[in-house]
Design a protein that fits this description.
Layout (H helix, E strand, L loop, with lengths): L2 E5 L3 H5 L1 H14 L2 E4 L11 H5 L1 H18 L3 E3 L2 H16 L1 H12 L11 E3 H9 L1 H7 L7 E2 L18 H11 L4 E2 L10
Parallel strand pairs: 1-2, 1-3, 3-4, 5-6
Length: 193
């Protein structure tokens, strides 16, 4: 059974609790253990926060990552914005010793240290790579014979390390197809929500 530190972010628990409830039911069905993180904060927002104060944004992200490090678990998130923020901050801090040192100076005041020992995955990656399409399909009780238009969200297209911007959207499409739906392309899938 795959285990992940579960980062919910700020929007899902407060504005979209139905997403959390549905995700937890799916995790239970497919045998994925989501260990709740306690004490985390907003990720922060992936675009503007870094433009306004990069060190503050990196420090907040690093603080959140330290909670997963304490559990010795990689982090999983449902939110595309949280995913982008946390994966980019993690990569920057793992590879930029100067920024990592500055961030850790700040975190030290709060009894924390970023070590760079966890990875961040979007739930789509976890379901596709760790659970697998066969397992997902075997858990479907009543296949859904309907047409569905997926909205991937713009942040899911961003790949920090890979030039393949279609990797996670294609994973999402394949996961959805395991439920019996027919995916309808409509040309606006990449727009911001």
């Amino acid at each position: 059974m795959a285990r992940y530190a579960f980062f919910l972010g700020c929007q899902i628990p407060m504005r979209l609790p139905n997403i959390e409830i549905a995700a937890r039911k799916v995790f239970e069905r497919v045998g994925l253990e989501a260990v709740d993180l306690l004490g985390y904060s907003c990720c922060p927002e992936p675009v503007v926060s870094r433009l306004l104060d990069e060190m503050a944004a990196l420090t907040i992200s690093a603080r959140n990552l330290t909670f997963a490090e304490e559990l010795d678990l990689d982090m999983m998130t449902l939110c595309n914005g949280c995913y982008e923020t946390l994966v980019e901050a993690n990569e920057i801090l793992k590879h930029d010793a100067e920024k990592r040192s500055k961030v850790n100076e700040i975190l030290k005041r709060y009894g924390r240290e970023y070590k760079g020992k966890v990875e961040v995955k979007h739930v789509v990656e976890v379901l596709y790579e760790d659970v697998g399409l066969d397992k997902i399909k075997s858990c479907v009780v009543k296949p859904q014979k309907m047409k569905v238009a997926l909205h991937y969200g713009c942040h899911l297209y961003r790949e920090y390390k890979s030039p393949d911007i279609m990797r996670k959207p294609n994973m999402m499409k394949e996961i959805a197809m395991q439920t019996g739906v027919e995916i309808v392309d409509y040309g606006l899938e990449r727009l911001c929500c």
